[in-house]
Amino acid sequence: MTRVIVSTGTAANIEAVMRIMDSAFDPNFGEAWNRGQVLGMMSLSDVWLILATPDDDEMPEGFALARLTIDEAELLLLAVRPEARGRGIGRILVEAVAEKARARGALRLMLEMREGNGALALYAAAGFAQIGRRRDYYRGRDMSRHDAITLARPLGIDPGLVA
Ligand SMILES: CC(C)(COP(=O)(O)OP(=O)(O)OC[C@H]1O[C@@H](n2cnc3c(N)ncnc32)[C@H](O)[C@@H]1OP(=O)(O)O)[C@@H](O)C(=O)NCCC(=O)NCCS
Known about the structure:
Elements: E1 4-9, H1 14-24, H2 35-42, E2 47-54, E3 62-69, E4 72-80, H3 89-103, E5 108-114, H4 119-125, E6 129-139, E7 145-154
Parallel strand pairs: 4-5
Antiparallel strand pairs: 1-2, 2-3, 3-4, 5-7, 6-7
Bound molecules: coenzyme A.
């Protein structure tokens, strides 16, 4: 695992966020957000951005965007540049989001992802379990349809203790 500096971001970090966004998401599925969508979301209260910067790098290589709604937090976006993957940065970002969500009073952390996204391995290892499914929620560029699955992780429980 690489040494990573985790920091809270602001709208001033939009260029770094878009650099990661544009490299990270598979364009076949239209999952990446544009600049306006990110800035619009960040202008809302109870939304936070976390950046991950390897200590041997100047630029952030990953980010997570999350939102709190009453006692539930949602991981809206998680992305790591392809060149920096497989070094634990994604997991570090998930844990940073969980920690902040817990500190803000969230009882669970939710997320929605396209079924078939390899990120499921990361989420399962981080203590998430499937709680729902939305049929045909995503449409690929080739018009193929893909279900969305909803995952949740209770907060306050160390995932290392979950069997
Ligand atoms: C998902 C993502 C953030 C993971 O970033 P990362 O820094 O590579 O994650 P980690 O190194 O912490 O990986 C943790 C584990 O999950 C696995 N994993 C993560 N993403 C995976 C993927 N796409 N396919 C297969 N396995 C994956 C890794 O193999 C690793 O397991 P290991 O520790 O047993 O080797 C990155 O692949 C990404 O940006 N993907 C595109 C955007 C995306 O799909 N985001 C999630 C939307 S819900």
